[in-house]
Queue: 2 jobs
Job 1
Amino acid sequence: MSSEHDRSEPDSVLRTRNGAVRTPAASASHRTVSVAPPPAPYTPGSVPDARIVDRSKPGDGGSGNGNGDDDGNDNGSLRAWWAWYQRELQRRPLRTKMITSGVFGGLADMIAQMVAARSARAAHLRRATVAYTAAGALVTAPFMHVWFPLLNRIVPSKDPLAVYKRVVLDRLVGSPPFYFLFFFMVNAVNGLSVRNNLKLIRTILLSAVRDGIAYWSVVNLTLFTYVPVDIRLLFSNLFGLVWTAYLALPRT
């Protein structure tokens, strides 16, 4: 009996070479039931780690080595700065304009120093930069903060020649007192006495007004046409980099 049972076992229970168990009943629908072997232990270098991703290719959103990601970071920084500027302009308009105008004034003097390649002492160079920073913050910003809205009230936008009238008023009425205050501040910070300051201003004021007509008339046609009054000073500062550097050159 036992021998017949032993001989019949291979008909009902069949074992494959890799350990799979197959029965006649199961083979009708599933021929083989496999028992998966346990996973092999991981050794460094044998299989790439799926968590390690190469992010050095351009534009793949990685660590910033690619041009696409750099552009995205630059645009994001610019948008964040612009959002900050508009928010601060609503909360503290005059202080915000003073900060930006001061920064642009100092940069303009640095540009003038590089163009002129001055060999003066470092202390004198720093003092000149401080002077133009102070003039930008304490003269340009407060003056234009009042002057630009005043122009809009003097010449209403409904006037078909409003832009041209504002340009003329700005150059002939606004610029002389502005340049006087601007030069007085710069010269005072640079150490000139009041008498010498006024004497120097008399020699340079007329030429500054005359040269400004050629430059700022073109710039202001664009500003008064396309730029809103609340951010007009910021764009004026951008063009003022060139102009203030021009004003600083004779004193370099």
Job 2
Amino acid sequence: FDLRENGLGPAATDVLVRALRGIDQYTVINLGGNNLRDPGARSVSALLENNGAPSCVHLDLRSNDIGVQGGVDLFTALQSNDILVSLDLSAIAGANRNHIGVRGCIALSECLLVNKVLAVLNLQSNGIGAEGMSYLAGALQEGCSLDTIDLTANSLGWEGATLLAQVLGQTSLVRLDLSRNEIGDRGAAEVALALRHSLEGAAEAEGERNPIIPWMRRILVERAVARGEAPPEEIAQSPSRTESPAAFLNPTPNGPAPHRIPAPGAPSERLHARPGQPWPLRLH
């Protein structure tokens, strides 16, 4: 169902929502590039609440000048929706962007702790900032359903990037966009370190199922040391290349224990944010 860029305002949206309620023929509703604003978002929220659009899995509300209250209404409604898997609140070039801000992120964090189906979320250019990220990070850390999130152009800065990095290892994200956030060297380093720990943790888990993995990692470590990207002592902590993969398929009973690098935010270190509470920024 596509009515993008048609100059629809709140009144037209209200009529449209009433017409769509209960109809199960549409899996996608595209209202991008209109002028819904907060009143129109409230009407759409009424449609989302309690699965009022019974087959809608993707909703496009890009560039509708939806503000804080509209964002709060949408995310509150999604707490009782178990059908919508993708929501786009990003911006279309040349059109009024949405701006859910910090309060919108508070409502989003509360929504993500309840909603278990929303997988794709685009929040490009919504004025979240580091403070908004502090609330979103708490929900991400608690294992919400999101696997894709776009946070482009939200003025996160290095503080917001650090907040995200601190919980990255506990998320189920497979796609993350942080373009145009001015995170700088410090923020980039925090995110890179978190990704490294996350990938190493995954490799170690895979190594327990497939002992060839540590032997392969030795080769990668040697290459990283040669390029100056890892300290030489990491080689000593890796399996010997002179041993064949078969040695790891049939390890000796008294063989050395595998080297483990604790991931940041491991269960013993995790700080839990209450719903609607900001995630604490920890500086290294």
